[in-house]
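User: Write out your own:

AI:
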Amino acid sequence: MADVMIAVMPFAGHVAPLAAVAAAFVDAGHRVRVYTGRAYADRFAALGAEPVSWSTAPDFDELDLAATFPALRGRKGPRQLLANVEHLFVGTGAAQGDDLVAAYGERPWDVIVADNLSLGTHFAAERTGTPSVTVSIVPLSIPTPELPPPILPLRPAAGPLGRLRDRILNTALALATRGIQHAYDAQRAASGLPPTDAPLAAAWHSPDLVCASGVPQLEYPRSSWPVRVEFVGALAPTGSVRPEPPDWWAELPEDRPIVHVTQGTLNVDPDDLIRPAFAALGRQPVSVVATTGRAEAPDLPFPAPPNAFVAGLVDYAALLPRADVMITNGGWGGVLAALAHGIPLIVAGGDIDKPVIAARVGWAGAGIDLRTGRPSATAILRAWRRLSADPEYRERAEAIGRELRSHDGPREVVEHTMALVERRARTAPPAT
């Protein structure tokens, strides 16, 4: 039995996959603590893990980030991405590390496992000299000279001009993110850690092991990885706990295809995606199942067409086996859940990492990238007609689905982690 610390950024999209991982460690007989926000403490306690709450680090409400981080107010798109990274993910790193080191002082762990945006994990692992595992809950952002910057929604380019493009973009990105790099350097100093020549991009992944959600078919090809990477498929079937079936569930027609429209769980303005999807498909021979992303607020501020069914959240284990197409804002967990069922996608990625995810889905041939987070009804209708007319999208989605279904993600994270612990134990110097 190992003592395992799991660190989870307190967002619904982070908690769902790491909850599945925590449950797998508990089921395997390991002693598990989970460092996360108070809003999710009960969720992990119910799994048999011991919650450790953000204390020195500023706990926050994911539905109102600006209340804790005023610099995030009123930002969207690339400006939101950069502000989130600097103020939320980087700016809390030292305090997260302090919380974790305090927990280590109370009871040392054998290994720390964390989602890839938990920067404090890497500080804590470095300070305690313990092995760490990154569970990448989004597409891998490990940089390489062979590819454009991983945070940009660009496909690989070939030839001398393509390589020149990528060199220029990598240089420009380094200049654009100097403020974030300075913030990271300051957080290292606040943690009592020495300066490092490693770029910030390297700080989001453990040097020991990365367990990547997804499969290689959704990654741009590269010659090698600078760290050990193990793909583990999907980690959780849905982005939240299983809700009760909505009142209309029994009324869903059996003889019409279902198009699922999801606004995600972070930026949930229904005008961005649900409204134009209703306008596009309200007269089509389908049932449109839309989720607002808020269990406590399932209603919309505009009328739904007669063929639409609306809920805050829907149990994907029940919905996805019946769905024909998913229209999504590009959350990675939802994308993997759809592809695991062989469902082709229409992706409107507008914020954070979602444009990158949309680009990868389009590159993989498993769906259509609308290249905006606020598509028009015409764009959605055309994309839906393309998916319906071209079987290659579904065939590609089904091929990726077969690969995803060949994995048991949470169990594989446990296996890879314990193999790391055993390797470290064999190579550790003898005690004196």
About this structure: The mean pLDDT is 90. The two ends are 24 Å apart (CA to CA).
